[in-house]
Structures are given as C-alpha cells and as structure tokens.
C-alpha cells in the first residue's frame, strides 16, 4: 500500500512538473510572438471615403470606390509599455481620385474628384496621453 501511495505521489509530482513546463513553454512562445510583432511598419487598412472628407458627402453623391486602402499604424504592432500605443511618427500626403455620381440631380454628369489623405509611413510607440488622432 505504501508503494502505491508513493507511486501516486510520484505520478502527481511528475504531472505537475510537466504541466508547468507546458505552461512556461506556452508563455515563452506567446512572448516571442509579441516581440516579433513590434510597432514599426504601418499596415494596409480599408478606409471609407466618408472618413477622408472634411464635410461628409451630400445625400445626392455616391463616391466610387466607396473606400480606399491606406497604410495605418493603429493595430500594426505591439508596444512593450502599456502606457504607449503604436502611432504614426512619419506621414505623407497623397492624392486619390474618386468618381462621383449624383443620384438625385441626374442632369449633373459623373465627375472625378481628388481627395487628399494622410498616409502613415513609419510607426513608433507613443505615449497614449500625447497622441492626437487625424
């Protein structure tokens, strides 16, 4: 009986050590994944045209395409300090051409409209309290 109890204790101890090793290994893999995804390069994001307009489109206007792709820093990488977020540290202005169609006033022809947008070109970890969003 004593051998049986010692065997059970040994098995329980071995399982505890193996379980802890598995958790430690999982933690280290997670830390490595986060470390490899550091905030530095912006990533493509879909941006609705309405977000690019200083005044929203009139109910009569339909822009095509309805959205565009711009590089953005939000969600593009991790920061080690919880008080920081991944934000743009370098940007550039770009011009995008959209076709505008008028739904109500059909006498007006379709036309092209140039909309200026700010694209993120480099990201960095910035204090959440000082970041301003565009």
In short:
This protein is α+β, with helices and mostly antiparallel strands.
Strand order of the largest sheet: 2-4-5
Distance between the termini: 73 Å
Name the beta content range. Answer: 35-45%
Number of helices, counting only DSSP H or I runs of 4 residues or more:
2
Structural class computed from helices and strand pairing: alpha+beta
Calculate the mean pLDDT score and round it: 84
Low-confidence stretches: none
Global geometry: elongated
Total DSSP E strands: 5
Main beta sheet, described?
3 strands, antiparallel
Signal peptide: 1-16
GO molecular function: growth factor activity
Keywords: Signal
Domain Platelet-derived growth factor (PDGF) family profile: 60-130
